[in-house]
Design goal:
The complex is a heterodimer. By secondary structure, chain A is mainly β. In chain A, about 15% of the residues lie in helices and about 40% in strands. Classes of the chains: A mainly beta, B alpha+beta. Chains A and B meet through strand 5 and strand 6 of A and helix 9, helix 22, strand 17 and strand 18 of B.
């Protein structure tokens, strides 16, 4: 994983699957994208982290759908607008990123990925690996691994006992 | 199949595989004679066969492989070099070994007279003698013949083979004489180095004689194939998908008018079900895998503890999923250990109690309604609920008041509580239960359950129930807030529907917590909607799914109950793993995802604790009283059955009653439920007139289910009653005053027994 300060050159012939979320032009390297699907019916998951929009049945596999608007800290989609699914692979799992609209697959030949501008909200900086100015638009390259990481904010914090009690047990001798 | 036969079977499969390897290796070896790696591999194979055949008392096989091993060890140590002669001799040895193994497979003995071992041994010996000069001290190993205990040569020759010392076993009488017969070896096809595949159909003299029975049954090797576990797992998964797709198609087909589609869907249904069953069976392994280890464990423990134990085992053939079998080994061993350690008494105590000096331990595995049941029964001292209870009270696990209200069965359950069992003091008093909580946790982790039945003085039975397989489970589908949820059948106790006055009567709120009065007990109620969304739905009627997880029983209020289905458990993503209320997800017939509820997780989230349950179980029950189901038969006469004998209460439309022979039956839960009218069985007139509905008490015992037809259920009472002999007759134990009315106490055994005789 790279931080925003590292200069990264996209490999020659590197392709990005692009999409729009709340007017932002985003992309994920095609190797990480399994497929792109139109809106799928979803099963809500009560008590799940806010960004988890639901579960979809992808040919028998159960896939968690994450709302990228929510993940990026953007306002929610207008009522009645159906998101599309960008199915990405991350750490052996398949996750769906819900986006507003699907763009083209574009080839970025050897261009240099620039650091995310510092004034972007941290919720976006957190997910975006770097930006790439193109003709007429700016592509934000999303780090799929970070985008699907939402387990960090459990809605139901477990009692923080384990770490806190650990030192005591060591001083108290073996139980 | 007894243990020996099974070991031989394994030995055969393994040896056949090894021999195929050996053929390849030997041919390969001829091309690169120096390869120590190949030589070691060949040596190991022969060595293994030798060791096992010695162990199984296949002496001819042993002596043959023994000489072969000597030759191989010399080759390996570089004292001899591989040439065509040596290869021939070794290959002929392999063939002879194979012929002997076929004999073993056919009649369990390696004494097949048609296989001439001596010739081959002589040939081997000749090669050994021809090249190796140092063989005078051969006698050292000579008398080894039959008496040589197998494990010894194995242990010795493995680390440091002494080819010279053990060189000559018995059988080579006069090598020279038969020298001219050695050429029998070339019956072997020319080992073609380019084709490393085993020269399989090679016809050494030994095999040639057996062309007789053409309709031979398939040999061990032909009839079984080793398959990678991963492949099996992926098959199971694919079949899971297929089952789901079938469900979807069935649903569509039902809604459609297309008859052809309907037929095709039905065929698909059949084929998919059968396929599912068969694929599941590929992962099945017999209980023998666990049972075979028990005699040794029991023997060692019995020694250690100074007990005399007679071990009896049943159900070696009972099969279950390999992953489950694996997970069971630990807990079962623990239970057996417990039975010996705490259950069975020492000899003198037993004799004093008038029992047989040797304790009896009975292990039993069998299938029952889609589950595997494993029983571990001892005829030892049993567990005294009073002692357990006292210990639990003194440990602070439960309060004295709670103990007073507990049924003996619940008290026994205490030994599964964490913290209860680990306390040494408790163990001393109760005499049982180190780590029983761990046993239960491990068994529940694989979807099973364990309970204990014990009679003081006459023994204890632990009964473990586990599903046949993990991947597909039966579940109850419920709905809440527009989504469906599946509750594993394993957690289900019963369904209760309350409306109107019943609802107001039965549900109370204690300090904001709703509780349900259910047959005299108070059951904590948890709203599924509130658990999931934080909002408590207001309803006029209440559907309560009574569920049980660990030690906690509670009522889960749901908006709708759909039906029971077989569901395929699928994992959920990392983002949701932290949520305790879900155990996974599944796909419904319409292709939508439904979450599987984790009943234990819901209890944790709602901070329900076992203690809370027992504390709120405020019932005025005296210890020793028996809960009775009071019912009406024969124009308002009252009778009572022990509640423990009641497994369910059902209502059936009279139109559903069918006849089988002279009995009335109804189709019930994929089976046939035999009906028994209670009134005539206890000498009363059946209430005249046809009813639209019949009330049935389902009674289950020893795997037999019987539906006892009554007029109606009146109540459940849990009070101390005084039974009298008044009214005693066939089927009736006597009578008692229950709720100010004289009530016949039904002798259920007597009523049901005639039925069992028929079946």
């Amino acid at each position: 994983m790279t931080t925003a300060t590292t200069r990264e050159v996209m490999a020659p012939g590197q392709q990005c699957c692009t999409f729009w979320v709340d007017g932002l032009f985003l992309g994920v390297p095609v190797e990480q994208v399994q497929e792109v699907l139109r809106y799928q019916r979803m099963t809500a998951v009560p008590r799940a982290p806010h960004a988890v929009h639901g579960l979809i049945n992808l040919r028998g596999q159960i896939v968690t759908a994450l709302d990228l608007r929510c993940r990026l800290g953007l306002p929610p989609r207008a009522e009645g607008e159906l998101p599309a699914n960008v199915i990405v692979r991350s750490r052996g799992e398949v996750v769906s990123l819900l986006v507003d609209d699907i763009g083209d697959v574009i080839t970025i030949a050897g261009a240099e990925l620039q650091p995310t501008p510092a004034n972007l909200p941290s919720s976006i900086q957190d997910v975006v690996r770097g930006v790439m100015p193109l003709d007429g638009s700016i592509l934000l390259v999303v780090d799929a691994d970070r985008a699907v990481d939402v387990a960090t904010a459990p809605e139901n914090p477990a009692p923080a006992l384990t770490p806190a009690t650990a030192p005591h047990t060591t001083t108290g001798g073996t139980p | 199949m007894n243990d020996d036969a099974e070991i031989i079977q394994e030995f055969l499969v393994e040896s056949h595989e090894n021999l195929d390897h050996l053929d390849r290796d030997l041919v390969e070896l001829e091309r690169s004679p120096g390869s120590r790696e190949l030589l070691s591999s060949v040596f190991r194979t022969i060595h293994t066969i030798k060791g096992t055949s010695g162990f199984l008392a296949f002496h001819r096989l042993e002596s043959l492989t023994h000489v072969g091993e000597n030759l191989l060890s010399r080759l390996r140590d570089g004292k001899m070099t591989m040439d065509a002669d040596v290869t021939h001799v070794l290959l002929s040895m392999v063939d002879t070994v194979r012929a002997l193994l076929e004999g073993v497979e056919r009649d369990g003995l390696d004494t097949d007279p048609a296989v001439d071992v001596d010739v081959v041994v002589a040939a081997l010996q000749r090669v050994l003698d021809g090249e190796g000069a140092a063989a005078p001290d051969a006698e050292a190993g000579a008398p080894a013949e039959e008496s040589e205990p197998a494990p010894e040569p194995v242990a010795e020759s493995a680390p440091e083979p002494e080819p010279a010392a053990v060189l000559e076993p018995e059988p080579a009488p006069e090598p020279e004489v038969i020298e001219d017969r050695v050429p029998l070896v070339p019956a072997e096809p020319e080992p073609a180095p380019s084709a490393p595949s085993p020269p399989a159909p090679s016809a050494p003299a030994a095999v040639a004689e057996e062309p007789g029975d053409g309709t031979e049954k398939r040999g061990v090797v032909d009839s079984s194939v080793r398959v990678d576990i991963e492949l099996l797992d992926s098959l199971v998964q694919l079949v899971g998908e297929l089952v789901l797709t079938r469900n979807q198609i069935l649903q569509r087909a039902e809604a459609s008018d297309d008859i052809e589609l309907g037929r095709a869907a039905q065929r698909l249904d059949l084929v998919a079900s059968e396929l599912q069953e068969n694929v599941m069976r590929t992962r099945m392994q017999p209980m023998a895998q666990v049972w075979s280890k028990m005699p040794r464990i029991v023997r060692d423990l019995a020694h250690q503890l100074g007990r005399e134990v007679e071990l009896e085992m049943e159900g070696h053939d009972t099969e279950l999923d390999r992953s489950l079998l694996e997970a069971l080994k630990g807990p079962l061993t623990h239970l057996v250990r417990n039975a010996l350690d705490h259950g069975l008494e020492p000899r003198d105590v037993r004799v004093a109690a008038g029992k047989s000096p040797a304790g009896h331990l009975h292990l039993r595995a069998y299938h029952e309604s889609g589950q595997v049941v494993i029983e571990i029964a001892d005829d030892g001292a049993g567990i005294d609920p009073v002692k357990i209870g006292e210990a639990a009270v003194s440990r602070g696990v439960i309060t004295r008041e709670a103990f007073a209200r507990m049924e003996p069965r619940e008290v026994l359950d205490l030994i599964f509580r964490a913290g209860f069992s680990t306390a040494a003091a408790v163990t001393n008093v109760s005499g049982r239960g180190v780590g029983m909580d761990v046993v239960r946790t491990n068994i529940e982790r694989i979807g099973g359950s364990v309970d204990i039945l014990s009679t003081v003085g006459s023994g204890t039975t632990c009964r473990v129930r586990i599903p046949l397989t993990l991947a597909i489970i039966p579940a109850l589908v419920v709905a809440e807030c527009g989504e469906r949820y599946a509750i594993p059948q394993a957690n289900l106790v019963e369904l209760v529907r309350l409306e109107g006055q019943d609802l107001r009567d039965s549900v109370d709120t204690l300090a904001g917590a709703p509780v349900l009065r259910l047959r005299g007990r108070l059951l904590p109620l948890v709203s599924l909607g509130e658990t999931l969304t934080g909002l408590r739905p207001e309803t006029e009627a209440l559907t309560v799914v009574v569920v049980q997880a660990d030690d906690i029983r509670f009522g889960l209020c749901v908006a709708e109950v759909h039906d029971t289905q077989e569901i395929v458990v699928k994992p959920i993503g990392r983002q949701l793993k932290a949520l305790p209320v879900y155990a996974g997800a599944t796909i419904m017939g319409d292709g939508q995802v439904a979450l599987i509820l984790d009943v234990g997780g819901i209890a944790r989230v709602r901070a329900l604790t076992p203690t809370e349950f027992t504390d709120t179980a405020a019932v005025s029950a005296d210890v020793g009283s028996q809960a009775l189901l009071v019912l009406e038969v024969s124009n308002g006469r009252r009778a009572a059955l022990p509640l423990t004998a009641v497994s369910r209460l059902e209502e059936f439309d009279s139109s559903r009653i069918e006849r089988s022979g002279s009995s009335e039956v109804v189709q019930y839960r994929d089976g046939i439920l035999r009906l028994l009218r209670l009134a005539p069985a206890i000498g009363l007139q059946d209430t005249p007139g046809e009813r639209e509905q019949i009330s049935v008490v389902v009674h289950e015992e020893n795997g037999h289910r019987v539906g006892i037809v009554i007029d109606q259920v009146l109540d459940v009472v849990d009070e101390a009653i005084v039974a009298t002999e008044v009214g005693r007759r066939s089927g009736v134990l006597g009578s008692a005053v229950v709720q100010d009315r004289v009530t016949d106490l039904v002798d259920l055994d007597a009523v049901v027994r005639p039925l069992e005789l028929i079946s």
